Amino acid sequence: MPRSRLLSLLPLLLSTLAAPLRASVDASNYHAFWLWSATRYQPVVAQASTLYLHQGEILNRPSGPRFIKLGGRQHHVRPSNSGW
Questions:
Q1: 74 vs 71: CA distance, rounded Å
Q2: Considering the domain boundaries, does residue 80 fall inside one?
Q3: C-alpha–C-alpha distance, residues 1 and 38, integer Å
Q4: pTM of the entire structure?
Q5: What's the average model confidence in pLDDT over 31-44?
Q6: Residue 37 has what DSSP assignment?
Q7: CB contact at 8 A, 69 and 78
Q8: Given this model, what pLDDT does residue 1 score?
Q9: How many domains does the chain have?
Q10: Angle made by CA atoms 75, 25, 40, in degrees to the nearest 5
Q11: Which residues have CB under 8 Å from 55's CB, separation 6+?
Q12: What integer pLDDT is reported at residue 76 of this predicted model?
């Protein structure tokens, strides 16, 4: 592609980068959720068929990989009529 053609496309490319990105997620469309420590309960979680719990991270240290526990409190799962 000729250089003049590329330069003519430059304003278009820059304008797409400058435009704010907007995205929204409707959680009611999902049935699996990741839960991090210190997050507040959301009613939509009641419809979940799968919950993934983020309980820590594995960090690569000079002494080798190490699991770092995150969150200090223990959470108790309350059974419900949905089978949980």
A1: 8
A2: yes
A3: 52
A4: 0.46
A5: 84
A6: T
A7: no
A8: 63
A9: 1
A10: 20
A11: 37, 69, 70, 71
A12: 58
